[in-house]
Design brief:
Elements (H helix, E strand, L loop, with lengths): L19 H27 L2 E4 L5 E5 L5 E6 L3 H4 L2 H30 L2 H12 L9
Antiparallel strand pairs: 1-2, 2-3
Helix pairs in contact: 1-3, 1-4
Length: 135
């Protein structure tokens, strides 16, 4: 689901350096569409993601933004692991969970991306870089 009923609402523009008015209108529409997404993106940022060690003794919870909200040690983790090993396990679980949270956020945000934004992105990729003047 893209969050937009008809991606065909945006006709692809053919780049022309003389069509500033068309680009300005597309940019205005893209900005308005992005502002309309703010609430949904805020919700995605707050969506929790959990991760666990293989043995289940270490678990973490992070927000969609990767902020650590909880670290739990269960079932004798303090006795099971030497301190340096426990630190490695917590770090590994936390980093993996943050990567998964980021990937989930990026996928969901991409699905919400308005067609106007995709069109602006397409135009920017096709626009040749400005030429440098000699000095």
């Amino acid at each position: 689901m893209t969050g937009h009923d008809d991606p065909g609402d945006v006709e692809p523009l053919v780049y022309s350096p003389h069509d500033e008015a068309g680009y300005e209108e597309l940019a205005r529409r893209a900005l308005a569409a992005l502002q309309a997404m703010d609430g949904e993106l805020d919700r995605l940022v707050e969506t929790p993601v959990e991760g666990h060690s293989r043995d289940g003794r270490v678990s973490v919870r992070v927000s969609g933004a990767g902020t650590v909200t909880e670290v739990r040690l269960r079932g004798g983790a303090l006795r099971q692991y030497p301190p340096d090993k426990l630190g490695e396990v917590v770090t590994r679980v936390l980093q993996d969970t943050q990567r998964r949270a980021r990937a989930a956020y990026e996928r969901a945000a991409a699905e919400l991306a308005p067609p106007e934004v995709a069109e602006c992105d397409r135009l920017l990729r096709r626009t040749p870089p400005p030429r440098r003047t000699g000095s």
